[in-house]
Amino acid sequence: MWQDFIDCINARELSTLCAIFRLLLALLLGSAIGLERKRKGQAAGLRTFALISMGACLAMILSIYVPQEYLGLKNGDPGRIAAQVITGIGFLGAGAIIQMKGSVRGLTTAAGIWIIATIGMAVGVGMYIVAIAATLLVLAILSVLEMIEYRISLGHEARTIRLRISGIIHSIDGYREVLSRHHIHLSRVYVDFEYDADYTRLNLLVIVPDRYDFMTVFHDLSRVNSTISISLSNQADLS
Known about the structure:
By secondary structure, the protein is of the alpha+beta class. It has two domains: 2-151, no CATH class; 156-233, Alpha-Beta Plaits (2-Layer Sandwich). It has eight helices and four strands. It has a four-stranded antiparallel beta sheet, covered by helices on one side. Strand 2 (185-194) and strand 3 (199-209) form a beta hairpin. Helix 2 (16-39) packs antiparallel against helix 3 and helix 4 (79-98) runs antiparallel to helix 5. The longest helix is centred in the middle third of the chain and has 25 residues, at 128-152.
């Protein structure tokens, strides 16, 4: 049994046992990254990443199986299935961003969806070491680099400025200019148009020094467009 398993890992030709092993490995690697995303409270979590990884792996298995079993095919191109996987993953990644209604909070998740698909494809073609190494690197980026970013921002805090603006705004350049003039870093933006009430809800996630005085900033922001109200939240929450 164990010898068959070892032979499966080193096999050049695809067998049923080898295909099952690759699917299980893709499931494991996808679950590892998905668990990290789930821990961060992202909508695309454990199940989503596991399914994407397995699906990409299965697509690559089919790409190998078809020319292996049907040698008489003259127009067969094993790369076509892989290319379509990348296209489909692009739609999934776009959906993760659109779901946030204009916020860029979904970019890391979208990038994670794309990279886990390529990891699954690597497993599907038998590049086990490369796939495992890529998974470890992704986990390092999502955890270690986040800690580095946090240490860099020590002495600063994230705040959310919430504005209600009369009518529908077409640009936030005026607000960006005010924040830039006060040396405030704008991290993320959330825009929500309330067509029934005829006003725009604009939330700005900013990075400022600890105990920053916002009074002058609020005064300048209130003069941009037809601002109805301005409030400040201590939480880095754009929704």
